Amino acid sequence: MPSLYVHVPFCQKKCNYCAFFSIPYTGSKTFSYLQGMEREIHMRLGEVSGKIASLFLGGGTPTVLSAEELEGLLNSLELFAFSPQAEKTVEANPGTLELKKLNIMSGYGINRISLGAQSFNDLLLNRIGRIHSAQDITRSVKLIRQAGFDNLNLDLMFGLPGQTLSDWQETLQKAVDLEPEHLSLYALTIEPGTPLACSLGEQSYEQSYSLGSAVIPDDDMQADMYELAAGYLRTQGYWHYEISNFARPGFECRHNLSYWRGEDYLGLGPGAVSCLNGMRCKNVEHIYKYCRLTQQGLKPVEDSETEILTQKELIFEYIMLGFRTAEGIDRELFARKFGRPIQDIYGEVLTHYIDKGIICSEKGRIKLNPAYYFVANSIIKDFSL
Amino acid sequence: MAQASTKIRNFSIIAHIDHGKSTLADRLIEYTGTLSSRELKDQVLDSMDLERERGITIKLQAVRIRYQAKDGEIYELNLIDTPGHVDFSYEVSRSLAACEGALLVVDAAQGIEAQTLANIYLALENDLEIIPVINKIDLPSADPDRVKREIEEVIGLDASDAILVSAKMGLGIEDILEAIVTRIPPPQGDDEKPLKSLIFDSKFDPYRGAIPYIRVFDGKISKGTNIKMMSSGKTFEITEVGVFTPEMNIVEELRAGQVGYVAGSIKNVGDTRVGDTITDADCPVAEALPGYRKAVSMVFCGLYPVETSDYEKLRDALEKLQLNDASLMYENETSAALGFGFRCGFLGLLHMEIVQERLEREFGLGIVTTAPSVVYKVNTVNQEQVYVDNPALLPEEGDIVSIEEPVVKATILVPSEFVGAIMELNQEKRGTFLTMDYITSSRVSLTYELPLSEIVYDYFDQLKSRTKGYASLDYELIGYKEANLVKLDILINGEIVDALSFIVHKEKAYVRGRRLVEKLRSLIPRQMFEVPIQAAIGSRVIARESIRALRKDVLAKCYGGDISRKRKLLEKQKEGKKRMKQVGSVEIPQEAFMAVLKMDD
User: Fold this and answer.
1) Which among A104, A222, B248, B457 is least surrounded, fewest beta carbons within 10 Å?
2) How much is the average pLDDT of B337-341?
């Protein structure tokens, strides 16, 4: 079953580490965007067959839209046929969340909120350019519960400039105190071209990065933070079901799992990526281009980025994504999907890693030993074909 | 007509690396209209890309220039180019032997350098007429009078009629051509005598086989001549005779005094050795031209393909390079760490670097090079003498009575203010002071006896950096001397990596070992486990470092919009990994193997 992603490319203010497509929120741009979206929905409705298993409204910041705009967007998405149990998530920023918006969402069947908390330390929040405070997070969580949502995710970040292990521990504790069903923990990644990358300049890694006087935790420190979090959340009843994701049993994010299981997805909105039947395409990262193309009745994709994935690429992606998850890869499913057993393709490298205990093979599934999650790339790259 | 033509002049150009030899050659060719300036890619004579980039001549070239002199006569000028590096001094001496004269080109601002001096002595030994040319007179810092004095004082050559030119601006070119005609004597020799010709270079042509470049001294050679190589006695039938203009142009014959090439389905450049004499097989001369010797490898190293499966490709590539470069030696070698590869011998370090670079560029091969080594003479307890060019093959410590190392006599020319720096360097390099002469009040010539291994190990870089690039160096092998030498092994993850072993003076072993393990720690990326790195002499560890285990290598997020980019990132990482050499369970990047060579203080 395919899933649906909708990109809302607006933010009140872009965070300095962010490499996603997002622009400052203005009324006129939002108008063009919503118009384009309306047309894109009509145009691409037919690309997905069968009921849609999940919806994810991400950004940017979907909650930066006004209550009316949000309602308009959710309303036009009603055209899609969702399965009755569909998981429908909206990303929210603690700085832009209001009860009114939450009630509208809930009215349109949104059943999961993903809140970009990032940290409970105001100094750190400020340093990475977040628009909200720790208090805003607590307030938002209360509103979310008040509006009746029983599936809440908090995004948290570690490895922030100047962050210490005890800062991180405190953030984790405060997050857990709010009893979210789900937690995503992301190591700060310095993406080229971001303001953060620019302000770090040409510092050599040897000396470790620092932002002003705030040192960015090095790999070892980040690894410690990761281990600290994984251990702590386990004791708090969260299950580590993907490299960066933890959930109460039954609350794993189905939308994201569908990516990791290699299922098809349709992405709408500027900058959104779709992958359907082995073809991946990306929408233009520009509001007016997006608007104009849809107006001309054209798919708003960036042609130069369209890829027809080869069998080898499909297989490698399946491995790359599958090894991120605790469920790993089902041998039988793999063989059915690609027409060949996995050991036919990866015999030597697979055996090597299984012998070393880095990959576990049990009950017809193979998975990455969680002790190696934080060095997953080193292992996964060996599966590139 | 028996006597060689009086209208021929054979000459070469002697110059320091960047004193403008190639530009001058271009101007001469351009001036005489041998090539139109459109055809004239800058610096015609340096035909390998690598040469043009490095601004040095590696392979010799020769070109025939037609020049109508002021006396109204048309002359045939043969410019025989010489390589400008100390590694190739034998080749230089052979091309000089093919000439009657030489242009000594000196930079008007820089003055004479050690290299030039060495080549001038070679030219004087060959009795050449030398025409001093002072180039770059257009430079604001040009001081032709000072340079003239220097030429007179240092070489003892009359520089009063030195020609002042600017090859760049095209000034003085005609003066040079006239001087060549009037001052350089025409070749001696007799057309009617049996063929006697000198090979001063050769190259390999895929259609014509090995092509010797020759200077005919006596007799003549044409299509159909049966020739004999006097060093080997091998015979070949000539199928083509030609000259360089600078393209290869077929001619009827080459007569006494002339320069050109011959072809005769000679399959191997090894049969066209520089310095060898070609004679007529049916009517041979009794005695070969003097001065022939086989190329001697001074520096050795192991070359291994990064990808084990590229072994065959590497062998083919070496074979092809050797077609053009008879001084390149190689034989099979196996390393415990690196697998199958080749032990290669080179004329010097530059020669080694060039071969390496050509393998990578022209053949697209990833190469791992082991530390360069010289040839040690090992006296064993069994009273045997073993030559060792591969540290891994050094006999057991207990079997060794003594080790002798090759020593050179090095001549260094340097502005006097750097004398202290040079003495310091040579002291660190275990040098023995021989002489010091003030050639002018501001320039000094120093001679030292130095172990060759010290020159191989970052001597040039040090020399350059300590004298701001002003010093120049020339050296010649003078023999072997006993020294207190030990083999230093490097252990990575507890295993000796034979490719990193090297032989070093005992007093320097600790510092070198210490530095090398530090360098290796910074060059080898973190692995999935902790990797100890040790330097050891025999079983005694003298330095130790460790690379901590890799702890973070992960993509924090991987959702729908990230997948393609992340996949490509990982594919790229895998490509990067291919350039690593797997030694035991540790992945070692290529540069680590070169670290032995390049360790700055």
Assistant:
1) B248
2) 87
Task: Please count the residues of chain A.
Answer: 385
Distance from C-alpha of B36 to C-alpha of B43, rounded to nearest angstrom? 13
* Closest residue by Cα to residue A379 from A298, A316, A299: A316
Flag whether residue B585 sits within 8 Å of chain A, measured between CB atoms. Answer: no
For the four alpha carbons of A193, A195, A197 and A201, in that order, the dihedral sign comes to: positive
C-alpha R_g of chain A: 21
CB contacts of B553 in chain A (<8 Å) are 374-378
Minimum Cα–Cα distance from B526: chain A residue: A378
CB burial of residue A135 (10 Å; 0-12, 13-18, 19+): exposed
The ipTM value here is 0.93
Helix, strand or coil for residue B263? Answer: strand
Number of helices (H), then strands (E), belonging to chain B: the values are 14, 33
Q: Is B74 exposed, middle or buried (0-12, 13-18, 19+ CB in 10 A)?
A: exposed
Give me the residues paired with residue A114 across strands. A91, A153
Residues on chain A touching B584 (C-beta within 8 angstroms): none
Whole-number Å distance between alpha carbons of A12 and A93 = 10
Distances (CA, A) of B381 to A223, B387, B395: 56, 14, 10
For β-strands A329-330 and A365-368, DSSP reports them as antiparallel
**A39-to-A92, A291, A293, B118, B220 alpha-carbon distances in Å:** 25, 9, 10, 81, 88
For chain A, the domains span: 3-260, 319-383
CB atoms B560 and A265 under 8 Å: yes
Q: CA–CA separation, A23 vs B81, rounded Å?
A: 65
Strands (E) in A256-375, as ranges, are 265-268, 273-276, 279-282, 307-308, 329-330, 359-362, 365-368
The answer to whether B560 contacts A282, with C-beta atoms less than 8 Å apart, is no
Query: Would you identify the CATH topology of the domain A3-260?
Result: pyruvate-formate lyase- activating enzyme (3.80.30)
Task: Give dist(CA A144, CA A140) in Å, integer.
Answer: 6
Identify from A244, A372, A381, A382 which residue to disrupt to test chain B contact, counting B C-beta atoms within 10 A and taking the largest count.
A381
pLDDT tens, residue by residue, A190-234:
888 888 888 887 665 545 677 778 889 999 999 999 999 999 999
Q: What is the dihedral of CA B214, B218, B224, B229, to 10 degrees?
A: -60
Distance CA B462, CA A58 (A): 59
Give CA separation, A188 vs A158, A206, B525, in Å.
6, 18, 22
- For position B46, what pLDDT does the model report? 47
How many percent of chain B have pLDDT more than 90?
46
